[in-house]
Amino acid sequence: MAEFLMPTLGADMTDGTLVQWKKKEGDRITKGEIIAEVDTEKAAIDVESHFTGIIERLITRPGDKIPVGTVMAIIREEGRPTTSIVSPRTVTTPPAPPPPVHRTESGTAVPSQIGRFRMSPAARKLAAERGIDASTLQGTGPEGAITLDDIERATTATADIVKSVDPADRQARMRHTIAAAMARSKREIPHYYLSTTIDMGRAITWLKDSNEQRPVTERLLYGVLLIKAVALALRRVPELNALWKDDEARRRERIHIGTAISLRQGGLVAPALHDADRLSLSELMQNFQDLVKRARAGSLRSSELSDPTITVTSLGEQGVETVFGVIYPPQVALVGFGKVVERPWVAGGVVVPRPVLMASLSADHRVTDGHRGGLFLAEIDRLLQEPQSL
Amino acid sequence: MNTPRSEDDTRSQVLRILGEIAPEADTTSLRPDVSFRDQLDLDSMDFLNFVVALHKEFHIEIPEADYPKYMTLNGCLAQLSAAQS
Lengths: 390, 85
Hints:
The structure holds two protein chains of two kinds. By secondary structure, chain A is α+β, with helices and mostly antiparallel strands. Chain A folds into three domains: 97 residues, CATH 2.40.50.100; 66 residues, E3-binding domain (Dihydrolipoamide Transferase, Irregular); 221 residues, Chloramphenicol Acetyltransferase, CATH 3.30.559.10. In chain A, strands 11, 14, 17, 19, 20, 21 and 22 form a seven-stranded mixed β-sheet that branches. The N and C termini of chain B lie close together (11 Å). Chain B contains four helices and no strands. Chain B has one domain: Non-ribosomal Peptide Synthetase Peptidyl Carrier Protein, Chain A (Orthogonal Bundle), CATH 1.10.1200.10. By secondary structure, chain B is mostly helical. The longest helix of chain B is centred in the first third of the chain and has 15 residues.
């Protein structure tokens, strides 16, 4: 048996509130599939399962606020024994309600059939539109059929849990959690900072030419070139692609770039662009667009918040020329980019105006030193001089 | 060929698109000659999404070189009007 726990979605998260289960007891779930929606200090998050198997028991109930690490559900993993006892140490919520029952016309209660339920086409359509998993509902229609009213009630109940957090309160809580993470970072991580000025002329010209060939729906933003350059540079200096745990740096094989995204209502999140080094620029752009859209709509996935191995922040659009960021623990580095500005630049012994960009590195001195950090920035610079190879 | 839209209809569609990109913004009080970026705090991703939405709604091609012409409400309406005439 596997225990599905309230996940940690960042160094600053201490607890979460279950909004809704996306699966019901008896359902099969595969690793990576969404099992629940959890409301955190920052946003409502779709939480993925780390296991493949059958859901034996849903312990936490919608609306329950529980600490990180609490057992929320029990999953019988495929190929594993069927008997196990849930550790009482970590179960802090009441047991789940009994399985839903149907009432027959004679009033006799019979258990719902797992995976099968009565539902009108209209209710099915509405459930699909609202993103409600009807199989988790108890129908109130004839013979337990799920009705339009049942879908409406489920929609309202889900929305109520999320909306019960006042926007101003959520903003204050988000500020509080960011403050806690940043204070911890500055307290625990001995930062060092480096910066370099990069000639962006070739990259901008290449991007302009490339975008001229692309339909409007497939154009690239120059930020994607920066993200890809960072991802590829990490292959050269892999010790920056690491997490600090138990007093040591643990290198990560895969490169997941946390991209700082400001939210319209205030605050920011830095979800992961997974495997950024392996994606083409077009794929990276597509994923980036999707990530920004979902971050602002409040529909990020748990892995996107827990997986970043380094963070990239760009404040150029706010007119900032240089950024020296604070590392987001347990990561060990952060890359900052400023605004592209026209500056006098010496090329071939001649002073010419060039579009330049200040790139910075904030890194953990327990893990790397300035020499390696300098190599990393130089590699980003080199890569941006060959944009066609990104 | 599509029937040309009235200016009011074009304006309301542009404002609807902006409202979807910046849901918290009051698009009814937009100053027509001030850039969307300054008034609505749009970033480059938002602006790209805006241009893509205009392309889909009005079935027009918008080269990247023309982006600056779409950065204000008046500029945008002028471009859309010219494209439909």
